[in-house]
């Protein structure tokens, strides 16, 4: 009987260790895990011309601080835009209602995220509100397409960088994407 | 040429036999689950006794990953992505696959030789004569022990591997600890963990089934048992790597 | 003279394995309550016969009837129910190596009954006492000698009080003393417990000393059967060769080969190189 007690103990420890490892992997290595308790949030929506490769679960940040997550991405077939639903954590409840949302890239080749910059309104965003000012994603192909086009047009190098940068961010990416292929 | 054809035919026949055996094991599982003690013993044999080799291997693989990963990422100036690289590499691929191969080598051969020896010394026949179904009493508990132990072992391997990579990357090569973990957290999703878990479960079923099949059907001689043990490792390796490709593709 | 039905009836049995016909129209009756010995040269399929009786092998044609039932036609639960009435002693004991002697003997009880621990203990110790190994209850099979291991296996095979006991080469590899012990046990258990014992062996002298009936298998049939005394008087060549342990006779000494002098002198074209 002693032998089976030791056996059960050993097996129990092994199984516990295994589950601890699984727990570690799911919580400490993924971003989901940290909000295990599920922070309370309110919903804010926004429409974009182009979201690039923004994904559900991508962060929503303000001044570089994560204040929420992208919850749902849909296509609005009436306005032909991408409708993005964001979950903003309740503790950030003082975001001016005229703030704008733009889609930026993490690092040079990283994933997309939504960045909010504060507006000047005195009212704040509430649950189910909509952000009206949006900037679409920066798509690499369109930038390159623009650069090549400008390069060919002006035949020089000096102004191309600046022109291409300011032009590409606000341009609809569809035709440029075609050119790039 | 005819030999090759015969060999291929034999392999297909063996594959069919193994799958039928696996189905039989699955059918007998519900009743075998009632003998909890037997299963606990086998989880101990397959899992707890493999811990040392799994943990050591996990540590070394993680350390190599840390070293190689650092060298590679440094060329692109992205050393902080080391955490991501190590975590993804281990959780999705190295963890399940290397653990499965080690498992086949340590636990798989033990299972095959145990059952083969029982076959060779008539213990299985004796049980049948005593009206005890050896499949239920002896084979299924061992099969379940392996199936339960594998995912746990793979998780332990990955966890230790990540710490091994951190040991090299952060403590020794100087990657920022905060970046190591935060970049990892930002890039690794539950999908990746799920892929790893699915793989290790599937590999567990495959390796355990192959091991008990070879042992149970071994020729009842000393060399028969030896051959069965060798075949277990070889077959497990090929099947695991093949399934790895299938599951990776399925998750894309 | 009342002839009760034999407990094992085999009629016109045909069985082939590995491309070779092992039994051709075999007929055999094993009578209840007696010790019957089945003998024959190596390779005549004595063990196969046992497997046909226990249902581990299925005849190609003909019938094998054990205690009124045909093992080859039963469903698995029915077959297991039949096997519980039989006990079998394997050639090398076949004890489960990871259990103690006590646990080995208790194994059938634990698997098939829900008897309380106290009762199991009493039964196991009684059976071990019958084979003279009660003191070895705590040992592991690896610590036993061949003869002791076989005695433990014997205790295990009688723990469920079977009606038929089958011994597969019980004397193989034993020293004379152990052999004598097993012989004595076969006879005593058969009489004390009212069993039918079937012993497969080729230790002619030994088994003849305790058997009631002796059957000689050769060429896939029973070539002779009777009490040991009757077999002694049997003049057929094959019986005389086997009982007397003669090197040559109906079972030839030489394996079939081409002409001897021809091979030596190279007249056989295939032998020349």
General description of the model:
By secondary structure, chain A is of the alpha/beta class. Chain A has 3 domains: 2-34; 41-135; 140-180. Chain A contains 5 helices and 8 strands, in the order ααββββββββααα. An 8-stranded mixed β-sheet of chain A has the order 7-1-4-3-2-6-5-8, with no helix packed on it. In chain A, strand 2 and strand 3 form a beta hairpin. The model of chain A is unreliable at 33-37 and 159-181 (pLDDT under 50). In chain B, 87% of the residues lie in helices and 0% in strands. Chain B is elongated. Chain B has 252 residues and is mostly helical. In chain B, helix 2 (36-46) runs parallel beside helix 6 and helix 3 runs parallel beside helix 6 (134-172). The relative contact order of chain B is 0.17. In chain C, 37% of the residues lie in helices and 21% in strands. Chain C is built from 10 helices and 9 strands. In chain C, strands 5-6-7-3-8-9 form a 6-stranded mixed β-sheet, sandwiched between helices. In chain C, helix 6 (176-193) links the parallel strand 6 (164-168) and strand 7 (196-200). Chains in contact: A-B, B-C.
Order of helices and strands of chain C: EEEHEHEHHHEHEHEEHHH
Query: Which two chains touch over the largest interface?
Result: A-B, 28 and 33 residues
- Number of β-strand runs of chain C: 9
Give the DSSP E fraction of chain A (strand runs of 2 or more residues): 25-35%
Helix percent band of chain C: 25-40%
């Amino acid at each position: 009987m002693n032998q089976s007690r030791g056996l059960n103990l050993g097996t129990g420890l092994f199984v516990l260790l295994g589950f601890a490892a699984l727990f570690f992997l799911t919580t400490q290595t993924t971003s989901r895990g940290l909000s295990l308790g599920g922070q309370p949030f309110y919903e804010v929506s926004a429409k974009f011309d182009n979201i690039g490769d923004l994904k559900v679960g991508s962060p929503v940040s303000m001044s570089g601080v994560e204040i929420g997550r992208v919850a749902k991405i849909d296509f609005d077939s009436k306005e032909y835009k991408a409708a993005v639903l964001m979950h903003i954590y309740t503790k950030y409840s003082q975001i001016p209602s005229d703030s704008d949302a733009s889609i930026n890239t993490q690092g040079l080749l990283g994933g997309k995220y939504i960045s909010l910059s504060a507006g000047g309104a005195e009212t704040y965003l509430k649950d189910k509100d909509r952000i009206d000012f949006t900037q679409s994603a920066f798509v690499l192909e369109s930038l390159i397409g623009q650069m090549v086009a400008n390069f060919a047009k002006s035949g020089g190098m000096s102004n191309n960088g600046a022109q291409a940068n300011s032009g590409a961010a606000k341009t609809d990416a569809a035709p440029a994407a075609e050119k790039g292929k | 040429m005819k030999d090759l054809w015969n060999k291929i035919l034999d392999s297909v026949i063996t594959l069919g036999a193994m799958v039928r055996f696996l189905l039989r094991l699955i059918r007998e599982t519900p009743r075998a689950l009632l003998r909890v003690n037997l299963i606990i013993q086998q989880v101990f044999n397959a899992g707890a006794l493999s811990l040392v080799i799994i943990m050591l291997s996990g540590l070394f693989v993680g350390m190599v990953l840390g070293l190689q990963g650092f060298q590679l990422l440094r060329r692109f100036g992205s050393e902080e992505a080391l955490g991501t690289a190590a975590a993804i590499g281990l959780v999705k691929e190295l963890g399940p696959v290397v653990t499965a191969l080690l498992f086949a080598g340590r636990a798989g051969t033990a299972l095959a030789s145990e059952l083969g020896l029982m076959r060779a010394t008539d213990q299985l026949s004796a049980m049948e004569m005593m009206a005890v179904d050896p499949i239920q009493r002896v084979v299924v508990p061992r099969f379940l022990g392996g199936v339960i132990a594998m995912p746990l072992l793979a998780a332990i391997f990955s966890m230790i591997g990540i710490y091994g990579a951190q040991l090299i990357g952060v403590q020794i090569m100087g990657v920022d600890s905060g970046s190591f973990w935060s970049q990892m957290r930002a890039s690794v999703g539950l999908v990746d963990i799920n892929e790893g878990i699915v793989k290790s479960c599937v590999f567990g079923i495959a390796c355990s089934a192959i091991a008990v099949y070879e042992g149970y059907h071994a020729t009842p001689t000393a060399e028969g048992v030896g051959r069965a043990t060798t075949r277990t490792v070889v077959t497990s390796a090929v099947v695991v790597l093949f399934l790895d490709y299938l599951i990776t593709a399925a998750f894309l | 003279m009342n002839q009760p039905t034999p407990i094992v009836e085999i009629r016109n049995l045909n069985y082939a394995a590995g491309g070779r016909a092992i039994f051709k129209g075999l007929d055999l009756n094993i009578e209840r309550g007696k010790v019957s010995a089945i003998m024959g040269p190596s390779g005549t399929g004595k063990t196969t016969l046992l497997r046909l009786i226990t249902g581990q092998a299925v005849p190609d044609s003909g019938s094998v009837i054990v205690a009124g039932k045909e093992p080859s036609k039963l469903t698995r639960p029915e077959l297991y129910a039949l096997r519980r009435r039989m006990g079998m002693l394997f050639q090398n004991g076949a004890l489960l190596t990871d259990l103690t002697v006590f646990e080995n003997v208790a194994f059938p009880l634990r698997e098939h009954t829900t008897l309380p621990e106290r009762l199991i203990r009493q039964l196991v110790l009684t059976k071990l006492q019958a084979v003279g190994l009660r003191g070895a209850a705590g040992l592991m099979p690896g610590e036993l000698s061949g003869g002791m291991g076989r005695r433990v296996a014997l205790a295990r095979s009688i723990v469920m009080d079977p009606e038929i006991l089958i011994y597969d080469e019980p004397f193989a590899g034993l020293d004379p003393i152990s052999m004598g012990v097993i012989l004595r046990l076969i006879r005593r258990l058969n009489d004390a417990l009212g069993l039918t014992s079937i012993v497969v062996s080729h230790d002619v002298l030994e088994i003849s000393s305790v058997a009631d009936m002796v059957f000689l298998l050769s060429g896939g049939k029973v070539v002779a059967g009777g009490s040991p005394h009757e077999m002694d008087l049997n003049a057929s060549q094959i019986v005389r060769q086997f009982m007397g342990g003669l090197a040559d006779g109906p079972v030839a000494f030489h394996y079939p080969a081409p002409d001897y002098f021809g091979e030596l002198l190279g007249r056989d074209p295939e032998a020349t190189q």
